[in-house]
Amino acid sequence: MILNSDISVPAGSAGPADPSDGRGMAARGLLRSRLSCQAFDPRATLSRAAIEGLIGAAVQAPSAFNLQNWRFVVAHSPNSRSRLKPAAYGQEKITDAAAVVIVVGIEPVSDAFSALMNRDEEDGRLPASERERLDRQIGRSYSDPCAGKAEAIRSASLAAMTLLLAAEADGIAACPMSGFDPAEVARAFALAAGETPVLLVALGRNADPAQVQKQRRPVSAVSSFA
Ligand SMILES: Cc1cc2nc3c(=O)[nH]c(=O)nc-3n(C[C@H](O)[C@H](O)[C@H](O)COP(=O)(O)O)c2cc1C
Which positions fall inside the Nitroreductase domain (predicted)? Predict the structure, then answer.
């Protein structure tokens, strides 16, 4: 746990949030308890409202230029999950889970982003001059298709992590999965050009309530300060 005395801020700026307040404790608690469910209870079901609640939390994730270049395709029905399973190399979790969210990253070149900015401009949240500057900057940033694809993967990964933490907060077992053939998933769920299935997030009830968290390498082994 960090202390306020560990953080220094320039005089006159807003201070950091108190890490010992309810919010800080709750966030740290979620990080301490989250784990990837190893065995889902195949009898459990999850309502559409509960899944939409998780997606509502996932879209709070940050994204470059606030492009929100993600989409969530939910394999909810047993049929959809059976369709997904072969593309995920037959992993049982796909059909044992109550739902699997395909977190899709979108290369930031589509008209959808223009529409998003049009709305911001109409609402007065984005002045016209700023809009032009953003259009130019976004065009420059993603003129290389590899950069667009990398950004799609970054945004969708952050959204997936946010979804995992929201699931933990709601008492829903979850497991992120990259063990799938992206081309097969894209074909089976009719993803558009420029859309990449980045992660599957299986959701449901943990069949093993005694499952414990895995070890992590110590901070000293994974960090350096420059
Ligand atoms: C990018 C990524 C891909 C993963 N792919 C799979 C997968 O295909 N199948 C699976 O059962 N678990 C998968 N996992 C779960 C990891 O095995 C798990 O996160 C890791 O062992 C650490 O365990 P923990 O999440 O419980 O702390 C994946 C996790 C990540 C982050």
Answer: 31-205
> How confident is the model at residue 118, as a pLDDT?
84
Q: List pLDDT tens digits, range 128-170.
A: 888 888 888 888 888 888 999 999 999 999 999 999 999 999 9
User: Which range of residues forms the domain containing residue 194?
Assistant: 37-204
Is 186 inside any structural domain?
yes
Which residue's alpha carbon is nearest to atom 17 within ligand 1? 36
Is 55 domain-assigned?
A: yes
Q: Residues near ligand 1 with C-beta < 6 Å?
A: 35-36, 91, 93, 175-179, 213-214
Residue 215 Cα to ligand 1 middle (Å): 13
5 three-state secondary structure: helix
| Number of structural domains the chain divides into | 1
The answer to whether 92 and 179 have CB atoms below 8 angstroms apart is no
Domain holding 151: CATH number? 3.40.109.10
Centroid of ligand 1 to alpha carbon of 179 (angstroms): 9
